[in-house]
Every structure is written in C-alpha cells, then in structure tokens.
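Record type: ASSEMBLY
Status: queued
Input:
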Amino acid sequence: MTNPAPFEVRRATRDSTDNYLGGVAAGLARHLDLPVIWIRVGFVLTAALGGMGIALYAGLWMVLPTDERFSDEAPGLASARRTGKRPGRTRRMADMGPTIALGALAFGIVIMVESVFGRGALFWPIVLGIVGVALIWRQADEAQRERWLNSSEKVDPVRALFGSGTWASYARILAGGALILGGLGVFALTSGGVHLAREIVVASLLGVLGLALVLGPWVFRLAADLGEERAERVRSQERADVAAHLHDSVLQTLALIQNNASDPATVARLARAQERDLRTWLFAEHKEEGESIAASLRALTAEVEDAWSVTVETVTVGDTPVTEAVWPIVHATREAMTNAAKHAGTGKIDVYAEVSPSAVEIFVKDRGRGFDPESVAEDRQGVRGSIVARMERHGGSAQIRSTPDVGTEVVLRMPLQEEKS
Amino acid sequence: MTKVVIVDDHAMFRAGVRAELQNAAAPGVLDIVADAEDVPTAVAAIREHRPDVVLLDVHLPGGGGVEVMRQLGHGDTKFLALSVSDAAEDVIGTIRGGARGYVTKTITGPELVAAIKRVSEGDAVFSPRLAGFVLDAFAGSIEVAAVDEDLDRLTEREREVMRLIARGYAYKEVAKELFISVKTVETHMSSVLRKLQLSSRHELTRWASDRRLL
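Status: finished
Output:
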C-alpha cells in the first residue's frame, strides 16, 4: 500500500470481559500484543521478587481505565440498550469456574506457606486485608461500568460505590469492609490481646466515620454539580447529533416523496435509499469505503440499488482491507451486479462475500431470465472482458452458471497470499 | 389453523403486521389470537393463549425478546424473531435465546406467512443474512457474549449448506445442488440451530435457574 495508515494512539485498558481480578493481565496482553499467559506468568514471577508483581498489578489496576467507555455502539443499539429493550450480558455459573479454581489455588498456597514457615504473625492479617481491598475495588469496577453504560445518569457518590445496588454489590462492599476490619483485628489480637484488638477496630471505625461526616456533604455537592453539568452537555450533544442526521436524511427524503407522490417507482427508490441509510446509521459499525471489502460492497450495493431500482441483499462474512490485489474482484462484482440488475428482469439480487485467510470469494446471484453462456456472441465484452478476463489477468477465477428461466450466478474467486515484506 | 401472537412495542407496526398477514394468508390458515407490547404482557398473553408461533420483536421494553423466551422456558411455542435491527449481536443473541428463525421487518406478507408456516412445522427459517451471521459467528469474527469454543464448530456439510443459503439459494435448490434431500437440508439446519443455542452446560444451568435451583 502506498498511503500509510493514520497514526492512532493505542490506549491501554483493562479487559472487562476477561476479568479474573480486574482484567489487568488480559488488558495488558492486548495492549502489548503478547499472549495473555506470558503476562500472567510474568506477574507471578515478579511477585516472587519481594512482591513486586503484586504491587505492579495493584498499581495498574488503580491507574488503567476499563475498556467499557471506548465501546462506541451504533446509536440505535445503544439507545435500545439504555431503555432496557435489549438484554445485557448474561453471566453463567460456568464462567465462575476459573475464579473458583484460582481461589482454591490461592488458599492452597497460603496453607502451604503456613505449614512450611510456621504461623507468621503478619501473614493472615495481610491476606485478609488484601482480599478485602480487592473485593471493594472489584465493586468499584462494576459501578464504573454501569456508570459508563448509562451516560445520562448523574454522578452520585453512593452510586459510584454501589452501582445500581444489587445484593451482590452490597455483599461485596460488606464482605470487603469486614475482611479489612478483620485483618486489623487479627493483627491486633496476635500482637496485643483482646483488649487492644477491640480498641484498634473501634478506633479505625470511628476514624472512617469521622472522615465521612466531615467530607461527605462537600463530596456530595461537588458530585451533584458535576453530574448535572455533564448530563446536560451529553443530552444536548446527542440531541444535536440526532437532529442533524434527521435533517440531512429523513426530512429531505420525506420532502422528495411528497413531491413525487404520484410516481410509485421514485417513491420506492427514495424509501429504499433512505432505509438503507438509516439502517447503517442506526445498526452498523461505521467504516470508510476503501478500508474494507464489506464497506466497499455496501457502497456498491447502494450504487446499484439507486441506479437500477432493484433490491440488493448483501451478506459478508469476514473482512479484509481493500488492497491492490483485491480491487479486481470488487470491480468484477460491480460488473456482475450491474449485469444482473440490467438483464435479469427481477427486482432482487443476492450478493454473498466470504473472506477467508486464503481467498476472497464473492457470489452474485439472481433468479431472473438467465441465458446460455455458450451462445453469447464473441463481440460482447461485458461478461468476457470485464469479469472473466479481468479476474484471470489478476490471478483469480470467474465462473458463470446460468440456466434460462432459472437464474444466473457469478462465482468470483481471488486467492490472497500474504505478502512477505 | 396456526395460532399466532404478535409481540411488538409499536402499536402501528402490530396493526400493520396483522393486516398484512390477514391479506396474505389464505382464509383459515392463520389465527392471530393476541398481541402484546412488552415483556410482561407478552408472557401473560402467551401463557393464556398457548399459540403455535410467536412473532417476537427483538427490542422490547423490559429486557428484549430474549427475556420473553427466558421467562417462558421450553414449551411447544415456537418463536420467530421479527426485527428492524440486523445487528449481528441481536440476531445471534436471539437465536441463542431460543428463536427458530429471524426475519427483518422489510419482509413481504407472503414471505412472512411462509416463514410462520415453516417455523410452526418445526423447521428453522434462515434468511441469507442470518446464514451469513451464523458463518461469521462460527468463524469467530463476530464477538458474541457467551461463546463455547468447544461446541461452536460446524461440520463440513453444515458449512456447505449455510454457504448456499447465504448465497440466496432456497432449501430445494440447496438439496439439488448437494444431491441430498430437502429433509436432510432441514436436519442440517436444526443441528446448526442446536449448536448455536446450547451447550450441555448452558442448558443445564438454564434448566436449574428456571426452577430456582441456583
């Protein structure tokens, strides 16, 4: 390719779909483009170096955002999700398996260390404390994810901790808090007896309560102001986006339809074009033409539908950037689609493209008039020149299967060899 | 007579489908017994009327069409998803939820009647687009929330069938092309559906959670 890919900043995020303990390792693996197992082994190995791995993991968990916020869904889908018209991600018991296994493993290691080194006075309090902190962080992740999912919601410090307040979120916070306090208590017990333990626990509880009382109102007010401002901005931006799109597309088309109400063909063509446009806007990922085969075929579909007043159903499986090697098959497809639209005499064309690592295959099928491929005159260049010869010149193949009165199918195949540079 | 319930949150669309079906179907073929506008009313209507086929909108207040199928569990009722969205996640998610077919709202009346008939007889309705998504899902290029890698593989024959459907072939033409009977094509379709919908683990969990054992 001659034009270099535009520079894009790669952001490191935590992987919210593959999370044992926050998904730090999975996110890092994606960012560094390494197998996730290497990262995990790396953390375990560095953890043995005086706990450096653990500290690193905790630090990354604190600093890295979850990837939830970078998912930009098509507006129609996002809105349907916000209003509860689509199901959310379902969690299954089976997903818990690895987590339970990890927990059991950690427990076993703890027991083993105990049996080898004897009861360390510091060991259990630290383990309890770490588990407690991890639980609370885990809940904060969950709350953050929910916040990003419904963007119009206000910032609320209570929600920031509890999310939408399911029993699981309360249980996590309670268990986490209890574990931290328990860790403190165990530490105090082993070092100074029941009396001291009680005092330490009570003192720390009082400390937390005091801080909350002093800082609470201020945090609440700040969050409320911030939240309202943000919600207002998001709302007005969204409204402006939708309005602009409606104005550019739907309103203009409706005006044209009113003017052409007596001409069914034009109305149908306008409605079809509008539907295609809205559908892509609402439900499809946006990709520039030329970036991918799927996008190029979408553009071709639009072109043929508008030019010949036919319906083209395009299905693509897999995708690849359109390179020098792929252009001939796109051009041949255009020719095949145009032929079908012009000569088949039916209103419908099926286009199916499949991109596998080894080849691009495109099938253009209609159920129209059909013809006898043998009887096409030598001087007709449409099929022979634009499709068969073009494909063969570029190392591909084209096959035309047609039966009179049944229909025609053009089979195009272009092998893809990975260019070694 | 096939009993049908229409579930959609837009009253105008419900009325339109009802009129379209009554126009397109021969008298005495379809009996539209009820319609519903969200998850609770849909569940109530289906429990009351026990229809053969439910035309189910995918985007539905109260958790979507998938939620309706989840609450009803397994029964004799077949679900045909009818949606304006042709996003991959919606299509595959609904099929995984238990729908026997998926058509978009641009479908014509006679096609819809044919699809309802086919679903009520226990067959699957695969539009070219649905077949394309299935191939994409199995090839791993669509991110679907819960994928069981060990089960998500199509046999060579099922793949061939799906490709022909995606190319716009009718069941009869697929059978002719591959020198197999239409019945065999339908068997392949059902096994594709089965592979999409459940693994034994998933099925077990669902069975247990439906009965509040988890």
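Annotation: Chain A is about 60% helix and 10% strand.
Annotation: Residues 25 and 328 of chain A are 43 Å apart (CA to CA).
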